[in-house]
Amino acid sequence: MCRRVCVVVEGNEELRKPQYLLPPFSKVVSHFGTSGLSVALATGVTHPLDVVKVRLQMQHVGQRGPLIGMTGIFVQLMKNEGFRSLYLGLTPALTRSVLYGGLRLGLYEPTKVSFDWAFGSTNVLVKIASGAFAGAFSTALTNPVEVVKVRLQMNPNAVPIAEVREIVSKEGIGALWKGVGPAMVRAAALTASQLATYDETKRILVKRTSLEEGFQLHLCSSVVAGVVSTLITAPIDMIKTRLMLQQGSESTRIYRNGFHCGYKVVRKEGPLALYKGGFAIFARLGPQTMITFILCEKLRSLAGLHTM
């Protein structure tokens, strides 16, 4: 049962309205479940683009050189490793989507409500802060699954459980949190830009155009959110991928941390190297953002929850 308080209207003892401090457990499950399911479905559709993105980001590590484009990497994968290679790491990707996606989207609104209660405001800065917290916290918990996913995407013969055992035995359990710093920064930037942009774009479109709550409003808002989040997170995503794929002891690693990785990439490969795989990121993140928000809004409606 939920804890509740009764508000007494002055002058009338009979008017007692129960106000629940905590929502029913079924609503909590629906809230996080719809978020996780929508992200998982979007991930399943766009996963091949994620594999291509990782391969693009790992070109010419530590040196300059001509880059193979997105189409070239795709053709190379199909020719050398076959169609199956486009779904490398799908199992941990879907696992992470349910956990990370459910937390990331699910924590945004409660965090925003908490900020509103504390500061009496839900302006765009509050939305950005709410998204940043939700993204960073979710990533800190689910980083091991992301590490395994990235490793599998670079190794067509690896098996998820075997890969986890190998990482722990050779590099220690701490290796499962490799790149967690940049990953948290990326997740904070992604969730803040994605959710805050979507939330604020919806508010502006409803206020200044004839669009009402529904598919068209969700589609327009999610397109804007996809573009903004890609521009902000592409360099951080690239650094995160490089760190996660590092192997060996600390003395043999190329990059010491996220800042060192960014510095060495810019110095040795040029500033544009930070946007390696940038088009692939947008080609994946754009549709993924649209699918996620449109599905989430529909699933929330079916579950009897209010819109985002």
UniProtKB/TrEMBL annotation:
Pfam families assigned to the protein according to its UniProt record, in alphabetical order: Mito_carr
Q: Keywords assigned by UniProt? A: Membrane, Repeat, Transmembrane, Transmembrane helix, Transport
Q: Where are the Solcar repeats?
A: 26-114, 122-204, 213-302
Q: Name one GO cellular component term.
A: membrane
Under PROSITE patterns, the record lists:
SOLCAR (PS50920)
Question: What InterPro entries does this protein's entry cite?
Answer: MCP_transmembrane (IPR018108), Mito_Metabolite_Transporter (IPR050391)
Protein family membership: Belongs to the mitochondrial carrier (TC 2.A.29) family.
Q: What is the protein name stated in its UniProt record?
A: Mitochondrial substrate/solute carrier
Upper lineage ranks? Answer: Eukaryota, Viridiplantae, Streptophyta, Embryophyta, Tracheophyta
